[in-house]
Design goal:
Layout lengths: L1 H17 L8 H5 L4 H33 L37 E6 L6 H7 L4 H8 L4 H6 L6 E7 L2 E10 L2 E7 L4 E7 L3 E10 L4 H7 L4 H11 L15 E11 L2 E15 L2 E9 L6 E4 L19 E4 L19 E4 L5 E3 L4 E8 L5 E8 L2 E11 L7 E2 L4 E5 L9 E8 L2 E3 L17 H18 L12
Antiparallel strand pairs: 1-2, 2-3, 3-4, 4-5, 6-7, 7-8, 8-9, 9-10, 11-12, 12-19, 13-18, 14-15, 14-17, 15-16, 16-18, 16-19, 19-20
Cofactor: Zn(2+)
Keywords: Hydrolase, Membrane, Metal-binding, Metalloprotease, Protease, Transmembrane, Transmembrane helix, Zinc
GO molecular function, one term: peptidoglycan binding
Length: 473
């Protein structure tokens, strides 16, 4: 054994000498230096592994492919892409309804406030004023856009101040829609029709009119319409209402796309006050020249004077010739009616007339006196301020002449109202007021037909038994 190792070493040295260019053994040469038998054994193992591993992988791939059936499908022949004809692209028209309707950008819903203008709104929102000028220059858009009302909602979509779209409701049945186009803007009016439904309801007053209305499911707006626009010439709802009074109404409710959006006009109304039945129906002629509330006999509900010169509220002091003055603490006739109301409440002219006096007058404070003709005049005292009126100016019934306050000898904000005939004070609550004229004769037949239909609906409701003797004079 020892001799064999020496012989091997000797052969190694001789090999080095036979190759003088190799000055030293490399790492590979040192690694490969093994007995011949060991190198052969390693080569055999690597050879077997090279045969077995592809075979195992092929078996696994065959199993997977067989499970999904891909190997069972016939193989498509190879296609030479160079021999294919040129690809033809067909033009497809996309329906407008299928296109996205959303507009990219920041959305702002602006609620119009008092004294707002479109220019002020654009400046406040830091929007492009050139866009506003372009929008307003489009035919018929300026008028629809500039008639702003407090509470209106304007929806704007903008991209860093550049307007992409603008929408606002211009009526109950129409929306103005402005959108940016390739050049400038496009505008259209979108119709949104309403579904009008008639509703009938009735109620009995136990404590107050508003409580009875709420119990009957009637909104305050509808009740105020009844009190101020229909029966306000015959009934002082601030003082004349008492327990046991009844109301019966047929009115409109408005829906859009199945959603309730508000109440409409009262079409017919009954009000039983202290045993007297007051009735009214809405009538609008086919030609549109007559539209108002009328009594069943064709007389207008409107009279020359309102019972109360301000919106339905409450009375703090009634007409009383022996009232003790709250400030002077002595008996002084109270020759009018005091309506307690918040400072700033609108005061209306009770009838058509001419401004005879506007200014300060002793204990009345700021006062307005109107002359109505026929020896009738009305006085309005303790105002906080006047409306834009002047001496000698003509005013219409219901127009604003001032605002409730507490100027002069007043313990709190209220309106002092007087009604005089030839200089003599009359109780505004009970004085007989001049009647309004009847409906024009050429519309009477049409009125009888339409009003009969509405009154029949009230009668069927059973809220009141209508007799000629019970009708108000």
């Amino acid at each position: 054994m020892r001799e064999s190792r020496q012989a091997a070493q000797l052969g190694f040295r001789k090999g080095l000498q036979a190759n003088p260019s190799t000055s030293a053994p490399t790492a590979r040469t040192a690694f490969d230096y093994k007995p011949q038998s060991a190198r052969s054994s390693n080569h055999a193992r690597w050879f077997v592994s090279g045969l077995v591993l592809p075979l195992i992988g092929g078996l696994i791939a065959y199993g997977v492919a067989t499970r999904d059936g891909s190997l069972l499908a016939p193989r498509e022949p190879a296609v030479n892409l160079a021999n294919l004809p040129p690809l033809e692209i067909a033009e497809v028209e996309i329906p407008t309804s299928a296109m996205p309707t959303s507009i990219l950008g920041d959305t702002v819903e602006y609620v119009v406030r008092r004294n707002d203008t479109m220019d002020r709104i654009f400046r406040q929102l830091k929007l492009n004023l050139t866009d506003l000028a372009a929008i307003r220059d489009m035919p018929s858009v300026q008028e629809q856009l500039d008639q702003l009302r407090v509470g209106d909602i304007i929806t704007l979509v903008h991209d860093e101040g550049l307007v992409q779209s603008l929408t606002r409701r211009i009526s109950e049945t129409a929306i103005l829609s402005v959108t940016r186009a390739n050049e400038g803007f496009n505008a259209e009016v979108i119709e949104t029709p309403l579904d009008i439904q008639e509703v009938q309801t009735e109620g009995t007053i136990d404590s107050s009119l508003f409580v009875a209305a709420r119990a009957a499911g009637v909104s305050p707006e509808v009740i105020l319409q009844m009190a101020n626009d229909i029966f306000g010439w015959d009934i002082d709802f601030a003082l004349d209402i008492q327990p046991g009074d009844k109301f019966n109404l047929v009115y409109e409710q408005k829906y859009r796309d199945g959603k309730f959006i508000g109440n409409g006009r009262i079409l017919a109304a009954d009000f039983m006050n202290n045993g007297t039945l007051h009735r009214a129906v809405w009538f609008e002629s086919k030609d549109g020249k007559v539209s108002d509330y009328f009594r069943p006999d064709g007389r207008s509900v409107r009279r020359a004077f309102l019972r109360a010169p301000l919106e339905f509220t409450r009375i703090s002091s009634n007409f009383n010739p022996k009232r003790r003055h709250p400030i002077l603490n002595k008996i002084r006739a109270h020759k009018g009616v005091d309506y307690a109301a918040a400072t700033g409440t609108v005061i209306k002219a009770a009838g058509d007339g001419r401004v005879a006096f506007v200014g300060n007058k002793g204990g009345y404070g700021r006062v307005v006196i109107l002359e109505h003709g026929g020896g009738v005049s009305t006085l309005y005292g303790h105002m906080s301020r006047f409306a834009s009126i002047r001496n000698g100016q003509r005013v219409r019934q219901g127009s604003t002449i001032g605002y409730v306050g507490s100027s002069g000898a007043a313990t709190g904000p209220h309106l002092h109202y007087e009604y005089l005939v030839n200089g003599v004070h009359k109780n505004p609550r009970t004085v007989l007021l001049p009647e309004a004229g009847p409906i024009p004769e050429e519309y009477r037949a049409e009125f009888v037909t339409k009003s009969g239909q509405m009154l029949a609906k009230l009668d069927r409701a059973g809220a009141a038994t209508v007799t000629t003797a019970a009708l108000a004079p």
